[in-house]
Amino acid sequence: MRFLDVKTDYAFKKVFGSTESKPILISFLNALIGFPKDKEVTDLTIVDPYQIPLLQGMKDTYVDIKARLADGREVIVEMQVLNVKGFEQRILYNAAKSYSRQLREGEDYALLNPVIALTLTDFTLFDGEDVCSRFLLLEKERFIQYRDDIELIFFELPKFSLQESQLATIQDKWLYFVKNAGRLNVVPNALDEEPIREAFAIANTAALSPAELEQQERRHDFIRLQRGAQEKAFEDGQALGEAKGLVLGEAKGLALGEAKGLALGEAKGRAEGEQAKALAVARNLLPVLDDAAIAAATGLDLGTVAQLRRGKV
Fold first, then answer.
1. Which among 91, 214, 283, 313 is most buried, taking Cβ atoms within 10 Å?
2. Single pTM value for the model
């Protein structure tokens, strides 16, 4: 068997956002969001369920899945492969937009339901080793929670390193599925349970239409091209930075050398001038003072004064 790479947004939406994906998505959300027992998802509606996208339409990212829970809460689920400019702002924008669009004109604000934006990334987003990061509105100094109406949850897949034998929780198993399904050819024993087994069935390429297979390949090609472009831009920037640093270093070294040479030359010139002045004074004192007195008066050493008296300086 071969399975879709669920890290692509197209395959992610097919597995978790199809009309038959409701039990899969319920398990996935309960596992990753970690609702309290009394608030776990029991039912939901998948808004805008998966349909085979037009092959000519190719977006680099979009909201993959939107679900409305039975208690009115909304959850936006997104798989992001490429770290594109404005990504973090867009996540917040989409959550705020979903929150504000709940009300019709004149309706009471008390009718607003919480929105959770659950995002999985195939790149490192935040510092630290934690796979999961959660954000709420908090008071800056005392960390008092304002409300839980908008919550942002991120899972960074590169930081998830558990092997099959180490999978202990349902959250571990879902993260392993998303990260590794595309390179598997059998359903691992640790994941051979419902509804994860059903997720593998949807991701099985044998069940895909030719149009869906073509879309998946086009999606992979697009991601490879974008990643290649990002890596080349990084390498070019790094090379440019190294070259610029070398030029600046050479210029700085040259300027420093010139300044140091000038300072040394000026110091040497001053010393030589002071020496010549002292010798001239000493010559004038030779007829009237002894060598010790001349040395004390001019700062010359006795040896130099003695050589001066013998006419050797």
1. 91
2. 0.69
